[in-house]
């Protein structure tokens, strides 16, 4: 696939790294010659210095033969115009734009993105993606990550395994016998910094981070069994009244019994948040001040969520909140090296905005009938939902005969209204939707499993 990425920032770099490593022909466009020099030195990609929406620059990047353009610059308008130019002048098949400003995303203006107006095939809003991830975490205390699949019928839970977990050192294949009415499958384990798809003989160990597929209605009981379920947060403090903080607070206003307060340093931003959030207390002040945090009630808060644009502010605010007595903290952190300091800092959950955006885009890049994708551990593995077509090598086979390679762990099979969990005698049928985890070395095999023949069209 020939892909042009407009924007060589964190998201553009992450996408270029992933797509180039998988054998795609990638060209990156950015105004910064320094960023282009850096990305072409580090990755096997072409680089073009110039404005991402200018036709002559796009021609230099190879737009005339491109299969896809992904516009992820810092300017919404550049991203939107790049897609417009790619369509109107060069008829590029797939156009993806990152759009941050919520005004562009108002449902009243959906017609703006029609083929006759501004033909953007896929709009990615990192603010909304991050906001939804935080809200899912608040609804499922005890899990450090919660991702829905199968229209929400199935969930991927990320759970830290503690010393008192009742199933540590138990081979995975024996766990279903211990809890016969609990349907779940362990598809990934992060141990000593590496993530892998476990075999049925692998045990869980204290200190592991386990990724588990389960029915949505079984999530709470699963967390109870693992000994990690926590109480629902009722008093929440949000640091930042920007786009993400306002979105999260606005969603929480609809939940009765919650006490939500927002700390925002910028006076104008605080005033805007106050207009948008009539039921939320907005404090104009510096969240790195103990006095301001005390005024917001951090010492009694079950959850403090730090969502500013500055990693250091989010880290230090979370550390201070814990010192003052907050129950749990979530911090938005862009820098990967700082994310790795999570345990030393005592932050309970890290939100990586780049990972959220890349996952949103990858679900549209993957070949075949892959319906959804969520990337884990900076691309170390992906959890996917794919549809089995007649041409799939899985169709008509049992799991025993499917011959899944090492590096792939099946989590669930959705067949109509039913949900089946891994069993050697489970037969995969055409039309089934499979949810699985694949290590990065197995991604090509996964695309082949869900490949689409020309007869499909």
Description of the molecule:
This protein folds into four domains: 2-124, Rossmann fold (3-Layer(aba) Sandwich), CATH 3.40.50.720; 151-226, Alpha-Beta Plaits (2-Layer Sandwich); 235-351, Rossmann fold, CATH 3.40.50.720; 357-456, Alpha-Beta Plaits (2-Layer Sandwich), CATH 3.30.70. The protein has 16 helices and 22 strands. α1 (10-21) packs across α14 and α5 (126-139) runs parallel beside α8. 31% of the residues lie in helices and 25% in strands. The model has no long low-confidence stretch (mean pLDDT 89). With 457 residues, the protein is an alpha/beta fold. It has a six-stranded parallel β-sheet with strand order 3-2-1-4-5-6, with helices on both faces. The chain has a six-stranded parallel β-sheet with strand order 14-13-12-15-16-17, sandwiched between helices.
User: How many structural domains in the coordinates?
Assistant: 4
In CATH, the homologous superfamily of the largest domain goes by the name NAD(P)-binding Rossmann-like Domain
Major sheet strand order: 3-2-1-4-5-6
How much helix is in the residues?
Answer: 25-40%
Q: What's the tally of helices?
A: 16
User: Within the CATH hierarchy, at the fold level, what is the topology of the largest domain?
Assistant: Rossmann fold
How is the biggest beta sheet arranged? 6 strands, parallel
Provide the CATH top-level class of the largest domain.
Answer: Alpha Beta
CATH architectural name of the largest domain = 3-Layer(aba) Sandwich
Termini Cα gap: 19 Å
Unreliable spans are none
Number of strands: 22
Please state the structural category: alpha/beta
What's the rounded overall pLDDT mean?
89
Radius of gyration: 23 Å
Name the shape in a single word.
globular
The fraction of residues in strands falls at 25-35%
């Amino acid at each position: 696939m020939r892909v042009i990425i407009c924007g060589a920032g964190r998201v553009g770099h992450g996408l270029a790294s992933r797509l180039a490593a998988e054998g795609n022909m990638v060209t990156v466009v950015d105004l910064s010659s320094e960023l282009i020099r850096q990305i072409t030195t580090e990755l096997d990609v072409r680089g073009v210095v110039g404005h991402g929406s200018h036709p002559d620059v796009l021609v230099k990047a190879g737009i005339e033969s491109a299969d896809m353009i992904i516009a992820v610059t810092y300017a919404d308008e550049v991203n939107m115009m790049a897609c417009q130019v790619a369509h109107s002048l060069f008829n590029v098949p797939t156009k993806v734009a990152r759009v941050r400003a919520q005004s562009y995303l108002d449902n009243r203006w959906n017609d703006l993105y029609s083929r006759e107006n501004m033909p953007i095939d896929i709009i990615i809003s990192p603010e909304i993606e991050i906001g939804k991830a935080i809200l899912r975490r608040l609804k499922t205390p005890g899990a450090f990550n919660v991702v829905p699949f199968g229209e929400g019928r199935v969930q991927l839970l990320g759970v830290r395994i503690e010393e008192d977990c009742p199933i540590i050192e138990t081979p995975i294949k024996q766990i279903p016998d211990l809890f016969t009415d609990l349907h779940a499958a362990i598809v990934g384990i992060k141990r000593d910094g590496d993530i892998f798809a476990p075999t049925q003989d692998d045990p869980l160990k204290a200190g592991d981070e386990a990724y588990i597929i389960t029915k949505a209605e079984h999530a709470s009981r699963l967390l109870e069994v693992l000994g990690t379920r926590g109480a629902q947060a009722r008093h929440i403090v949000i640091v930042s009244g920007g786009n993400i903080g306002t979105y999260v607070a606005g969603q929480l206003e609809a939940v009765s019994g919650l006490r939500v307060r927002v700390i925002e340093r910028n006076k104008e931003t605080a005033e805007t948040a106050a207009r948008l959030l009539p039921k939320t207390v907005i404090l104009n002040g510096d969240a790195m001040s103990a006095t301001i945090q005390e005024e917001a009630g951090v010492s009694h808060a079950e959850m403090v969520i730090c969502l500013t644009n500055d990693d250091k502010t989010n880290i230090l605010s979370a550390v201070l909140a814990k010192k003052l007595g907050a129950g749990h903290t979530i911090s938005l952190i862009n820098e990967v090296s700082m994310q790795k300091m999570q345990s030393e800092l005592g932050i309970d959950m890290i939100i990586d905005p780049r990972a959220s955006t890349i996952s949103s885009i990858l679900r549209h890049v993957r070949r075949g009938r892959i319906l959804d994708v969520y990337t884990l551990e900076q691309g170390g593995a992906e959890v996917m939902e794919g549809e089995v077509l007649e041409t799939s090598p899985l169709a008509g086979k049992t799991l025993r005969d499917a011959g899944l390679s090492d590096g792939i762990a099946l989590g669930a099979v959705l067949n109509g209204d039913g949900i089946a969990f891994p069993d050697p005698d489970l037969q995969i049928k055409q039309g089934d939707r499979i949810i699985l985890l694949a290590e990065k070395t197995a991604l090509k095999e996964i695309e082949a499993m869900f490949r689409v023949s020309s007869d499909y069209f």
